[in-house]
Amino acid sequence: MGPTRKIDGASYTVVFKTVPDPVQVGAHFALDFAVCPRGSADVPRAVRVDAIMPEHRHGMNYRPVVTAKSSTMYRAEGLLFHMPGRWDLTFDIDAAGPVERLTGVLRLE
Amino acid sequence: MTRPIRPLVVALFALMSFSAAAEPDAGVRFSAAQIRRIVSHGPWPPAPQRDPSNRASGNAKAVAWGTQLFGDTRLSGGGTLACASCHQAELAFSDGLPRAKGLSFVDRNTPSVANTRMQRWYGWDGASDSLWAQSLRPMVDAREMGNDFARIAAAVREHPDLAEGYRAAYGAAPPADDEAIAVDVAKALAAFQETIETARTPFDDFRDALARGDRSAAARYPVAAQRGLAIFIGKGHCDVCHVGPRFSNGEFHDIGIRHFVGPDRVDSGRYDGIRRLKASRYNLLGPFSDDPGRATAVSTRYVASEHRNFGEFKVPSLRNVARTAPYMHDGSLATLRDVVRHYSEIDEDRLHADGERILKPLHLTDAEKDDLVSFLESLSDRWR
């Protein structure tokens, strides 16, 4: 069980952990995460997860699939970071209004 | 006049060599962060691991049969070629040619089959997701061994030594299904190839010495190779793709090598590789995998096809790289120095607009190129 990380957005807070932790270069991993509406924000209709390397100008070679475990708990599977360096993990939260993107940073050696 | 000088020169050389070995400071001083990166390229060899998708994997009798099959010309359509015709042990399981030549020429360079156990993708375009699926393809490719399932199955059924090999490997007589026999032949070939592993290298001794803090042992690694290693993990950014003990991240990149393989033909690389992977009934999601839970199929299930995959080719392992010339997916670079020069002067105009941003000309000096080549040579198990 790895440590959890928290990202606060305008309407949502995401708390996530990688499985396994730490993430290894070139090895598939999953994300267990919760999306918590802040204030009067709606429950998300859909959540998408992706990751990019901003310094390299590309993302992953894999498209993760998100499964809802409950109204707030999710699992994303199929992620793989194929290079060491900075990866920006993005959570796109689709509710009634505009999609809100929350970004967490992971660094791999 | 020269006679009195020669012993002196020899003595001085011996003294210098001894000093280099005994004096830890003679080499490059790597920081703690650099040492962590160097140590990440080991240990070598990796721990043995069975392939759950191949019931022949790790089975000694299947390995023995696969060893026989690897050199057996009866697996080819004309009876003239074996796997070993292109994957020659004395050439580090490659063929020394720019482009492979089976029954006719192939567009790509023959990759070594050493250290191919449990990779994520196989072939320059990753069109196969297992070693057994990759072993099946050349047997039935018209340009390579030019055979078909019916003739492979007939050979196994009709030749007593092959039928006995099948029985020993799988505990049953060859079945009636031609396709099943051909896949089982490929699985035995894979079981053998899993055992082909490169030996330890001067780099591995250096890496292990750094890992245990033995500076005296580390100092035995040639200083030129140490300087080359500093470039490899430093301004060269080589270890961004050539990661881990195999010196490859197992993925695909466009590095500015020409895409045209003729006046009117283009090799689209990974782009077509993903299409062929997904269409193949021999992928790890298909009916021939022996992994009932399909846990080995994670990469195949989630791999994404992107426009930038066009012209991307697999990052090759650098183990034994000094013994596998010529280089690149099309064999277009003859020597390691040519490879270093390619990256040093890389033409950014040839790279994808949406490709890897960190590929920039390094403008290495001649001395730096020599050092980088020395480092690459030290990754081979027969030190020149």
Task: Report on this structure.
The complex is a heterodimer of chains A (109) and B (384). Chain A has 109 residues and is mostly beta strands. Chain A has a single domain (5-108), classed as Immunoglobulin-like. Helices cover 0% and strands 56% of the residues of chain A. Chain A has no helices and nine strands. A five-stranded antiparallel beta sheet of chain A has the order 1-2-3-7-6, with no helix packed on it. In chain A, strand 4 (46-53) and strand 5 (58-59) form a beta hairpin. The model of chain A has no long low-confidence stretch (mean pLDDT 94). The longest helix of chain B is centred in the first third of the chain and has 21 residues, at 2-22. In chain B, helix 3 packs across helix 8, helix 6 (149-158) packs across helix 8 and helix 11 (223-232) packs across helix 15. In chain B, a hairpin with a 2-residue loop joins strand 2 (260-262) and strand 3. Residues 1-25 of chain B have low confidence and may be disordered. Chain B has two domains: 26-45 and 199-269 and 310-384, Cytochrome Bc1 Complex, Chain D, domain 2 (Orthogonal Bundle); 60-193, Cytochrome c-like domain (Cytochrome Bc1 Complex, Chain D, domain 2), CATH 1.10.760. In chain B, strands 1-4 form a two-stranded antiparallel sheet. Chain B is globular and about 65 Å long. Chain B is mainly alpha-helical. Helix content of chain B is 39%, strand content 2%.
